[in-house]
């Protein structure tokens, strides 16, 4: 058996050093509880801009919206950022594997990324969200197939799929085909219906699912932050994090309207038990009828070719 944890907590909007300090404290708490793996929510480092419109309507953007975007960019991190190194050092000291959502800055574009830290503190893998949802497409770029791999860890092979990417059947199939054992689903979806999708994925892939969502109140955002509503004494995101076994049994959660750390003991062999009668990428597949081709190549907008030269 292995103990795993899901962290349901708020980031500190637009204060990334404070968010990293909070993440470090929470990582230590997970380790103190005996967890070997901890999963944090989508966009935990850098923040999820719930309710913001960045002054954008079809055919027009406002100067105020551009300034709001600048503030959001300034809260983002690069993968080699000193703050990420600080986080990695805390992971190394805790000796556990950590998956966390970050807003990644690459060049002049932001990506919603899930970063996996190995227990030695190094970045063992990262996944950029393939399909930002709705208005997220204004502020986040599209990932490509080069970051949909898995990471081998002491608790099992991890795969990360972010928020509504989990509604993409072909992406799920690609994760199952890579032997994903622990399916990490950082999300911003705090609806009570989210757990239904997570249970389905656990059963479909015969995987352990760890889903983490922030629990953050409107009054945690700055006073000048634009909101979809103004009642500051309510939740902007309510949580709903959970841990689910390959059998579909909910081992922990969902919990709403509070910050918490959910822990559960998981049985790595439960995945094998489940494959007796179902393997979506193996004996229950029909490759004579259905085939999925996945392009895992990086898609760069510009390739600088030095040419042959003379």
UniProtKB/TrEMBL annotation:
PROSITE patterns: CN_HYDROLASE. GO terms for molecular function: nitrilase activity; nitrile hydratase activity. GO terms for biological process: detoxification of nitrogen compound. InterPro entries: C-N_Hydrolase, C-N_Hydrolase_sf, Nitrilases_CHs. SUPFAM superfamilies: Carbon-nitrogen hydrolase. Residues 2-268 form the CN hydrolase domain. Belongs to the carbon-nitrogen hydrolase superfamily. Nitrilase family. This is Nitrilase. It comes from Enemella evansiae.
């Amino acid at each position: 058996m292995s103990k795993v944890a899901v962290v349901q907590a708020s980031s500190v909007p637009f204060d990334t050093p404070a968010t990293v300090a909070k993440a470090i404290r929470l990582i230590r708490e997970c380790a103190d509880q005996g967890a070997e793996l901890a999963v944090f929510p989508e966009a935990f480092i850098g923040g999820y801009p719930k309710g913001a419109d960045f002054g954008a309507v079809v055919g027009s953007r406002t100067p105020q919206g551009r300034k709001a975007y600048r503030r959001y960019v300034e809260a983002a991190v690069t993968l080699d950022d000193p703050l990420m190194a600080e986080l990695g050092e805390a992971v190394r000291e805790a000796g556990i594997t950590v998956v966390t959502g970050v807003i990644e800055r690459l060049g002049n574009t932001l990506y919603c990324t899930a970063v996996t830290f190995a227990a030695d503190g190094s970045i063992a893998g990262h996944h950029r969200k393939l399909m930002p949802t709705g208005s997220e497409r204004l502020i986040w770029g599209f990932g490509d197939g080069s970051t949909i791999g898995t990471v081998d860890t002491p608790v099992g092979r991890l795969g990360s799929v972010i928020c509504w990417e989990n509604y993409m059947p072909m992406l799920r199939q690609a994760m199952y085909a890579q032997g994903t054992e622990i399916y990490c689903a950082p999300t911003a979806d705090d609806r009570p219906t989210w757990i239904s999708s997570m249970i389905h994925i656990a059963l479909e892939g015969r995987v352990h699912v760890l889903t983490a969502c922030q629990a953050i109140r409107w009054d945690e955002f700055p006073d000048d932050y634009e909101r979809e509503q103004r009642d500051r004494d309510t939740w902007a995101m309510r949580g709903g994090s959970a841990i689910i076994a390959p059998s579909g049994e909910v081992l922990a959660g969902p919990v709403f309207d509070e910050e918490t750390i959910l822990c559960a003991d998981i049985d790595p062999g439960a995945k094998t038990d489940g494959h007796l009668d179902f393997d979506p990428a193996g004996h229950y597949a029909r490759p004579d009828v259905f085939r999925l081709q996945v392009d895992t190549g990086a898609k760069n907008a510009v390739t600088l070719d030095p040419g042959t030269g003379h």
